[in-house]
Amino acid sequence: MPVAAAGPRILLKRLREVMAEPENAQNRLNKIASLIASNMIAEVCSIYVMRPGGVLELYATEGLNPSAVHKSKLRIGEGLVGTIAAEARPLNVQDAYAHPAFKYLPETGEEIYKSFLGVPLLRSGLTLGVLVVQNRASRLYTEDEEEALQITAMVLAEVIASGEFDEIVAAVDADVTHVRSHRIVGDSLADGIALGHVVLHEPRVVVTNLIAEDMHAEMARLDRAIAALQEWIETMVQGLDVPRGEHREVLETYQMFAHDRGWLQRMRDAVRTGLTAEAAVERVHSDNRARMLRQKDPFLRERLNDLDDLANRLLRILTGQANTAASSELPKDAILVARNMGPAELLDYDRQKLRGVVLEEGGSTSHVAVVARALGVPLVGQAQGVLDIVDTGDAIIVDGSGGEVHIRPSPDIEHAYAEKVRFYARRQEQYRALRDMPAATLDGERIALHINAGLLVDLPHLTESGADGIGLFRTELQFMISSAFPRMDQQVAHYRSILEAAQEKPVVFRSLDIGADKVLPYLSQAKEENPALGWRAIRMALDRPALMKLQLRALLKAAGGRELSVMFPMVAEVDEFRRAREILEEQREYLLARGHQLPVRIRVGSMIEVPALVWQLNRLMELADFVSIGSNDLVQFLFACDRGHPRLAGRYDPLSPALLSVIREIVHAGATHGVPVNLCGEMAGRPLEAMALLGLGLRSISMAPAAIGPIKAMILKLHAGQLTEYMAPLLELPEHSLRPHLMAFARDSGIPI
């Protein structure tokens, strides 16, 4: 039987036996080196492990001088071993001395060995070390021998990554606690600090069965899985009801990768060597990843995401594993890690166990960030490369305040953050001491501070924060977490419970705002080229008035005997607001005619988030009882800047003269017509931005509950009149942002921001 089919199978069995023996880690590693040498009929087998700073250290050897272990070291790119690590591919030479990259290490005693075969220890495309075999005779190793060593290296990489040899590392170097520690700096999207363990939103499939019992059966399994993957992609592409454009081209490129003959052939070849279908997919993907991670072409690097996704989907088909971790059992301190995700996906998770979220992408105004802030879950976005270096169960720290992520942190870092958590708790205690104080500036301006909410469990924050009311209740969240469209009685009960929990404090209900990245699983929606600018919110409601009528009727019934405040989102024309208000009046008359108790007062408002309304303010103010500025979408539409695009996440500053001038225009129109103006976007929850809003004349803002304390502390130190005078000339400046000027004002005035 060929070495590639029989050798690895026998070796794997013996490796498992060695790992089960009650030996210390160094002895086990020595036995593994001996086993590999015996299996490969090699006179030398050496195992090099990657150490901090890109150093490859000899950890075990059979055949070389034992005293060289933990002494012989090569940097990436140095010597034959370093070359293998740098290029992430095997090296097979018949005369090692003659190779231009050879570096002589006299302590090893390797000068008598000519033939050399080395392969990288790869996991998810990252090099963990190098595995080498050598012989005295000058010869090239066969393809079967090279394949056998690569399969062995795949198994050994899993063993090293599992932490089996951490005790050796600790004995060798006191600084080894940093061996696999990483610090990533991203963007702070939701405040707070969380210590916990990694849960991958889309879990990687762990391949445990590596060696095939029946090669033909494995080949059939692989072919069936490939066919299922291609059929799924074909259905997705054909179902796109959009014209040609970037969105369709991306999916068609994805489809092309799934039919790539080279990729498919390499996986089939790997099965022929004796691997299972899953191991073949993992093996080829790790090789592809290693090569693409070393590419300088940014386009090719970006395609890595497509290959990652294809391989993971293929592995899920083969193993039958779920697409996300939401349905699995979470640890009590779960930190969710994902490339990106929608708000509904975040709401799928158990909020009692979810401690924090880390995203490779995501911007501060993306809806998942908004929901995370509403839930009080620390969130760091733009954590580039995090998925390459984490595994489920890894210890992780999320610093949502500073935008930092620490993966497998050292004890010193853990201790420092434990202290930071205690400091954060003390600061929150200080804010709680302000809870019952009115939010008034030094010159006597009373500021109404409201919270944003979306679920009944958010209501305790209303009392805990000392907020004046709920300035934005996102009614769509109830729909997003339901498996079917909520019935009338369910909606009535839900809205009534919200009003009862709020007691006498005002609640502003925003009508159903779905579309864009807020999709209801039970509501059919066509794919859109630009969903944020598409069929969503009031546009959908006016086109499907039955949905709006049902919700408005439920709100009217729930508020019987109380005051009801309703506002409509995504209004672009005053006519849309007028039509929505007429539907509300129709439902009021319908219930009145049937003897239902009605609200004692009904206030109807409009969101101002589409710039077109800025040129219709006078007509809008004549019809509206109040207006609320949605700064998140207003920023997006004003600057034509996708709020979820990773490259545009920080492109435009909300404190730009352009946006602030628009907000001032809205505030002045409200004052002229006697119409209250509120702002319920994310600007309101950050002290410096909130300070600027007060300088523009806003006296009512709405934010995440955790922001109430810091905002109130800022207000108590602010002289609003002085700020208004200071800001007036600044709005005429042709600058990207007024942030430096406002920071200087706060610093000089002793205002905590």
Q: What does this protein look like?
A:
- With 753 residues, the protein is an alpha/beta fold.
- It has 27 helices and 22 strands.
- Helix 12 (367-375) links the parallel strand 11 and strand 12 (379-381).
- Helix 19 packs across helix 20.
Short description:
The chain has 27 helices and 22 strands. It is of the alpha/beta class and 753 residues long. The N and C termini lie far apart (72 Å).
Helix and strand topology:
Layout: H1 3-20, H2 25-40, E1 44-51, E2 55-62, E3 73-75, H3 79-87, E4 91-93, E5 115-123, E6 126-135, H4 143-161, H5 166-172, E7 182-185, E8 187-190, E9 193-200, H6 215-238, H7 246-258, H8 261-272, H9 277-293, H10 298-319, E10 334-338, H11 343-347, E11 354-359, H12 367-375, E12 379-381, H13 386-389, E13 395-399, E14 404-407, H14 411-433, E15 448-453, H15 460-465, E16 469-474, H16 476-480, H17 488-502, E17 507-510, H18 537-543, H19 545-558, E18 563-568, H20 574-593, E19 601-608, H21 617-623, E20 626-629, H22 631-638, H23 657-673, E21 677-679, H24 687-695, E22 700-703, H25 708-715, H26 720-730, H27 739-749
Parallel strand pairs: 9-10, 10-11, 11-12, 15-16, 15-22, 16-17, 17-18, 18-19, 19-20, 20-21
Antiparallel strand pairs: 1-2, 1-6, 2-3, 4-5, 5-6, 7-14, 8-12, 9-13, 13-14
